[in-house]
């Protein structure tokens, strides 16, 4: 089984996770830039973070046979802090990098006017750079948030074919599908979507344009949720080809629109800017 996790924050995960993910079939992933839990106070700390998504993290993933790409953006939560807004002006110099396969994650957190501006600005940046956009839908007040998100996408210059609406669930899937966007589902332990509910959504709505991710990060999450969903699909009677479509071909088709996917994990060098994952040891 080959698995592409289209949304996972490996910066927050350990090398044990990389090892377990490879063993479970994960061969490629996309790491969206996001909120780090601790609020940032200056644009420069975003730039160092983006550089690590473009440098150190793909290097680390390659040590475990996994192809790593990223998306960059000013995330919705920090778009509310005026100190962080200069990130928007600096994004073009990151969006031209080979490993950046989308603008993201963007979208709404609390649906403030500052978030409106950041979302519209970054959808335009995606259109200008010929890149897809990864759009997070809010965890609170989900249906209202998703409707407003779709309205902003419709008003933007970006084709819905280039938009992945993420963190969907049973209440939002139908309208999201009608919008023409790609459909992302984050499978979490204990809260929000789980793998059995995901299987039910796939039975009701089919496998076209459907993507499943673990969204694993620094919070309670599980980087193997992609594999667990694949196993639940097989147990429920889906074919291996259905699993391959949802867990591999759909994310490849979506992020492939960037023209930048390199699915062979680059032969790992031993060093990144003079450093190894052995912290200088032999
Ligand atoms: Zn995320």
Give me the secondary-structure topology.
Blueprint: E1 3-5, H1 15-24, E2 26-32, H2 43-54, H3 56-62, E3 67-72, H4 86-95, E4 100-107, H5 113-129, E5 133-136, H6 142-155, E6 163-166, H7 173-178, E7 182-186, H8 195-205, E8 210-213, H9 225-235, H10 240-256
Parallel strand pairs: 1-2, 2-3, 3-4, 4-5, 5-6, 6-7, 7-8
Helix pairs in contact: 4-5, 8-9, 9-10
Bound molecules: zinc ion (ZN).
Residues 7, 9, 32, 34, 105, 215 line the site of zinc ion (ZN).
- Uncertain runs with pLDDT below 50, 5 residues or more? none
Q: Major β-sheet, in short?
A: 8 strands, parallel
Secondary-structure element pattern, one letter each? EHEHHEHEHEHEHEHEHH
- C-alpha Rg (nearest Å): 18 Å
Please list the strands of the largest sheet in the order they lie side by side: 1-2-3-4-5-6-7-8
Helix content: 40-55%
Helix/strand/pairing class, anyone? Answer: alpha/beta
Distance between the termini: 34 Å
Tell me what you see in this structure.
The protein has 282 residues and is α/β, with parallel strands linked by helices. 41% of the residues lie in helices and 15% in strands. The protein contains 10 helices and 8 strands. Strands 1-2-3-4-5-6-7-8 form an 8-stranded parallel β-sheet, sandwiched between helices. Helix 4 (86-95) links the parallel strand 3 (67-72) and strand 4. Helix 4 runs parallel beside helix 5 (113-129), helix 8 (195-205) packs across helix 9 and helix 9 (225-235) packs across helix 10. Residues 7, 9, 32, 34, 105, 215 line the site of zinc ion (ZN).
Top keywords for this entry?
8-stranded parallel sheet; 10 helices; 8 strands; 282 residues; binds zinc ion; 41% helix; alpha/beta
């Amino acid at each position: 089984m080959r698995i592409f996790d289209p949304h996972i924050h490996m910066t927050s995960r350990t090398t044990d996770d990389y090892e377990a993910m490879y063993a479970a079939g994960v061969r490629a992933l996309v790491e969206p830039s996001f909120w780090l839990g601790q609020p940032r106070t200056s644009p420069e700390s975003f730039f160092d973070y983006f550089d690590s998504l473009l440098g150190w993290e793909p290097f680390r993933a390659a040590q475990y046979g996994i192809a790593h790409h990223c998306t960059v953006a000013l995330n919705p939560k920090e778009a509310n802090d005026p100190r962080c807004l200069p990130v928007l002006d600096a994004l073009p110099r990151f969006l031209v990098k080979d490993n950046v396969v989308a603008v993201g994650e963007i979208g709404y957190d609390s649906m403030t006017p500052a978030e409106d501006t950041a979302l519209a600005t970054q959808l335009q940046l995606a259109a200008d750079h010929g890149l897809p956009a990864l759009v997070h839908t809010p965890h609170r007040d989900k249906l209202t948030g998703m409707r407003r998100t779709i309205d902003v996408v419709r008003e933007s210059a970006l084709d819905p074919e280039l938009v992945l609406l993420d963190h969907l669930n049973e209440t939002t899937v139908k309208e999201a599908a009608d919008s023409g966007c790609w459909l992302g589902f984050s499978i979490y332990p204990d809260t929000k979507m789980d793998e059995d509910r995901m299987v039910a959504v796939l039975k009701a709505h089919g496998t076209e344009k459907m993507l499943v991710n673990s969204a694993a990060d620094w919070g309670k999450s599980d980087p193997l949720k992609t594999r667990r969903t694949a196993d639940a699909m097989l147990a429920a009677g889906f074919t291996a080809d259905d699993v391959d479509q949802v867990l591999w071909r759909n994310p490849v088709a979506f992020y492939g629109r960037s023209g930048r996917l390199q699915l062979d994990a680059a032969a790992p060098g031993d060093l990144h800017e003079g450093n190894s994952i052995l912290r200088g040891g032999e």
